[in-house]
Structure prediction request, 151 residues.
Amino acid sequence: MGNTHENTSGDRTAPVRFDTKIAVLLRDDLETWQRLNVTAFLVSGLGTVAPEVIGEPYEDADATAYLPMLRQPVLVFEGAKETLTAAHTKALSRSLEVAVFTSDLFGTGSDRDNRAAVRAVGRDALDLVSLAVYGPRNAVDKVLKGARMHP
Prediction:
């Protein structure tokens, strides 16, 4: 799966247009700290299943090395619980890469407990508070239908 359309105009300042999209959909009733925490958690695993989204390491003028980051923007949306449920169903039916965060995860304290909390609930009964989705831009756009950009 390609990440960008080549810029054939020769203009190195023109924005890169990605043919994939990384999006996070947050339930609209979350507290600010929850929105930030959940977004970070959800995108953290993306590079392990889609290594092409990770760019090169950074370095400052003093040759101090920094970690690589995602090569493309993460678009953040919000919606009602029903919007999340519909997006979850659509994303899975399109075989897109999906990460979920359920309300149960606010009460756990470790990665092991997080996985156990998700594993304990059937797909259609998950109390989703957020999800991240990655895939072809048009498919992700269809999954997010009904959601609005996060303010």
About this structure: The mean pLDDT is 91. The helical segments are 32-44, 46-49, 81-93, 111-119, 137-143. Residues 32-44 form the longest helix (13 residues). The first strand starts at residue 20 and ends at 27.
